[in-house]
Specification:
heterodimer, A: about 375 residues, alpha/beta, Rossmann fold, B: formyl-coa transferase, domain 3, 6-stranded parallel sheet, 3-stranded antiparallel sheet, about 40% helix
Chain lengths: ~375, ~400
């Protein structure tokens, strides 16, 4: 049983932002019809490509159907209207000019399909200057403030970072977009089969990222904390950071006397630990002490292996964890227990391991039921070229 | 009752009529409640003076005007219950009976020990949707563990991908993570709500905060499964765009520039007045630029270093090259675009009359939500919840208060 059975969504998105929005809903079991331009969605050409197939596309488009339509042609544009007439929602991530040229702006869609939930997720939201909407994920992450403050404690002379992977700003925006679509579809369901069930949803990726830092940045907006040019403005202070160990890296988080005593015992009470007050983390956590601690801890942790040392740390009440790589995750017992990775057969790649979702749902588990579609796989059913 | 309803004004929006009970603390759980409230759900936070949400206490301030709390909990209702008493738990169960969704992020096992686990709640309300947010999820070999958001990120695979090239991976800013877990919880709750509307069946949602972070790097992990190549911390590298990085400007500012294709590359060189770079064979196409990108980044950095980041980004964008300043906290707070778009907006505030908040990333029309009400006082909605939703007489409520069951 899937959560969104019976819901049909048309996706004309061509960036990871809109495609991930569609994926989140398709993986819940909605019928998501991906409309692709002749030649295929741009993401079909994006790396990594193996045996002529994009792994990115294969990830972003699980559980979807594909229909090829040239939306610049009247006939195909009319086919899209027929699909929209029987759909519950439309997902898009294009800029205004693209949509207006194809009569797919919010007013056009509301007029032609008043029942439809219509969501456009863009870098800066509707009304932003046209040239801003061409910004790429790295630009949006920079605009949101996350880059300036990432990683924690980055000095002025080192560049701010884009975040993990290539599409951080797309994915965070997509979560909000999918959330809004489901909320509005709830309203549509309540309204019943009438013409007024539709709504237009404008999601800004930049604002999704800014909203995620609410309890840090809002205190600055409200004058309760000082906004500044400091790269450390979002940080908490303290010794927590990552360290190189023998076979990788660990992350250590310490804020209390109990954490400190646990760590000292884990290390076998070396002499240097007596240079710190027992309660230094709470009452003497100066910049100098943090630096001194890290300098003295580094040689010890460098000789340890990440899994045994972090397991012993957990038992000693120390929040030290391995910094897992992509290769480590499938071996993690908890991730395996929850079935986060789902094995599947891909027509080109063979057996693959799909990351699924962070929510385990007892009645309607998220499943990858079908791999990303071949281009135009559903043309005959849906009227594509 | 209708003519004298105690029901607080709804902010409207697509979830109007949906009631959510939240037993949450700190950030991830309250953020899930906020997302649903900002879409129009009636979200009731179960609180107690003797077991406060830490966010009401940080800084040793007045619990009713604590900055951390005010910055998250807009449009939330507050009811007091002492959950350490059997009578208090019984009141919570009666609230569950009147709710659609229950969200918690308290310690593993705590809901079950209070007989508020899913099996218990199902007996009270068979179609209830319960969502539990935990570090590692609700059960399993590591399900007992608790921790902090940067630890989740480290475990998740996300942390490892963020770092300057060739250096120790450092992760995103350590504040990243909690709120995204809350957003994903809200999303799953709504999927479950659709299932309930269609079939009448509720369910239990077991959310892992670690896996929330893992899902944000899903494409990298899937690529690893396909290619066998372990993704490494990669700074600002992009395999299909070059330049694609942050470059120093005047002061401590940085500008991000992302160039795809030869047209954008030529335009960048024009705006930077860098004819020599445009003509340099080391940079003549994407493959060459990628191969020589350290030299390229250095050359561009030398050209941007004397320029104002905001002004240069504006010129580049207008010329057709995606660019944006890396915004500091002071840049964000004073940003005219964000204020004009109501990314920041004013809500009511018990102490100061009004307060700026970070509004939702969405605008919905027609009949969109109007986020206007600030965070609640502790127990501000006791009367509404006890007298109107549960239908208790005033004397009974007075008695519960006197005996500190409502505290």
């Amino acid at each position: 049983m899937s959560a969104l059975a019976g819901i049909t969504i048309v996706e004309i998105a061509e960036r990871p932002a809109g495609e991930y929005t569609g994926k989140l809903l398709a993986d819940f079991g909605a019928e998501v019809i991906k409309v692709e331009r002749p030649g295929g969605a741009p993401t079909r050409g994006m790396v990594p490509v193996k045996d002529g197939e994009s792994a990115l596309f294969a990830y972003l488009n699980t559980n979807k159907k594909s229909v090829v339509l040239d939306l610049d042609k009247a006939e195909d544009r009319a086919t899209l209207d027929r699909l929209l007439a029987r759909a519950n929602a439309l997902i898009d991530d294009h800029d205004d000019a693209w949509n207006v040229a194809r009569s797919l702006g919010s007013d056009d869609v509301a007029r032609a399909h008043p029942h439809l939930v219509h969501c456009i997720v863009t870098p800066f939201g509707q009304g932003a200057p046209a040239e801003w909407q061409a910004c790429r994920p790295i630009n949006v992450t920079m605009a949101s403030g996350w880059a300036y403050h990432s990683p924690s404690e980055t000095p002025d002379e080192k560049p701010p970072l884009k975040g993990p992977g290539r599409f951080f700003a797309d994915y965070e925006g997509a979560i909000d977009a999918a959330l809004c679509v489901l909320a509005s579809l709830h309203r549509q369901r309540k309204a019943g089969p009438n013409e007024r069930g539709g709504q237009f949803i404008d999601v800004s990726q930049d604002e999704a990222l800014i909203n995620r830092i609410d309890c840090v940045l809002d205190r600055m907006l409200a004058g309760e904390a000082e906004p500044s040019m400091e790269r450390t403005a979002y940080d908490m202070g303290g010794p927590q950071t990552s360290f190189a160990c023998k076979d990788g890296h660990v992350y250590l988080f310490m804020t209390t006397k109990a954490h400190w005593n646990g760590l000292c015992s884990l290390m076998g009470e070396p002499d240097w630990t007596r240079e710190f007050r027992e309660d230094w983390l709470e009452f003497d956590c100066t910049r100098d002490n943090v630096k001194k601690f890290r300098d003295l801890f580094r040689p010890w942790i460098a000789e340890q292996e990440k899994l045994p040392v972090t397991e012993a740390a957990q038992k000693a009440g120390v929040a030290m964890v391995p910094v897992n790589t992509a290769a480590d995750l499938p071996k993690n017992e908890q991730i395996a227990h929850r079935g986060f990775f789902q094995e599947g057969e891909h027509p080109v790649f063979g057996t693959v391991s799909y990351p699924t979702a962070c929510y385990k749902m007892s009645a309607t588990p998220v499943r990858i039921a079908s791999p990303a579609p071949a281009l135009g796989a559903d043309n005959s059913e849906l009227g594509g070229e | 009752m209708a003519e004298t309803s105690l029901k607080p004004k709804s902010c409207g929006g697509p979830l109007e009529g949906v009631r959510v009970l939240e037993i949450t603390k700190v950030w991830a759980g309250p953020y899930a409640g906020k997302m649903l409230a900002h879409l129009g759900a009636e979200v009731i936070k179960v609180e107690s003076a003797t077991n406060l949400d830490e966010m009401r206490a940080y800084g040793g301030v007045d619990i009713n005007s604590a900055p951390y709390f005010l910055s998250i909990n807009q449009e939330i209702l507050s009811v007091q219950v002492n959950m350490k008493t059997e009578e208090g738990l019984d009141l919570v169960r009666r609230m569950v009976a009147e709710s659609d969704i229950v969200i918690d992020n308290i310690r593993p096992g705590a809901m079950e020990r209070s007989h508020l686990g899913y099996e218990d709640l199902k007996k009270i309300k068979p179609d209830i949707i319960q969502c539990s947010i935990k570090m590692w999820g609700n059960e399993g070999p590591l399900g007992y563990q608790t921790g902090y958001a940067p630890c989740f990120a480290a475990l998740s695979g996300l942390f490892y991908l963020v770092g300057h090239e060739g250096e120790t991976p450092r992760g995103m800013n350590m504040r990243h993570g909690d709120s995204t877990a809350g957003a994903c919880a809200a999303l799953a709750c709504l999927a479950a709500l659709h299932h309930r509307e269609r079939t009448g069946e509720g369910q239990f949602i077991d959310l892992s905060a670690v896996e929330t972070m893992t899902s944000l790097v899903g494409d990298s992990l899937f690529s690893y499964s396909v290619t066998g190549k372990v993704p490494e911390p990669d700074g600002n590298f992009h395999p299909e765009m070059c330049p694609h990085a942050a470059y120093p400007c005047t002061g401590v500012d940085w500008i991000s520039i992302a160039v795809a294709g030869e047209g954008e590359w030529q335009t960048l060189c024009e705006v930077l007045d860098a004819g020599d770079l445009a003509a340099d064979p080391r940079f003549s196409d994407l493959a060459s630029r990628l191969e020589n990108r350290r030299a390229l980044d250095e050359a561009i950095g030398a050209l941007t270093a004397q320029q104002d980041a905001t002004e240069l980004a504006d010129r580049l964008r207008k010329a057709g090259v995606p660019a944006f300043k890396a915004m500091s906290s002071i840049d964000l707070c004073s940003d005219e675009f964000l204020w004009a778009r109501e990314a920041y907006r004013m809500v009511s505030d018990h102490k100061n009359g009004s307060r700026p908040i970070i509004g939702p990333s969405w605008r919905i029309s027609p009949e969109g939500p109007q986020v206007e009400r600030g965070a609640p006082l502790l127990g501000e909605h006791n009367d509404y919840v006890y007298r109107e939703i549960l239908g208790l007489p005033q004397e009974k409520l007075d008695d519960l208060v006197a005996r500190k069951i409502v505290d």
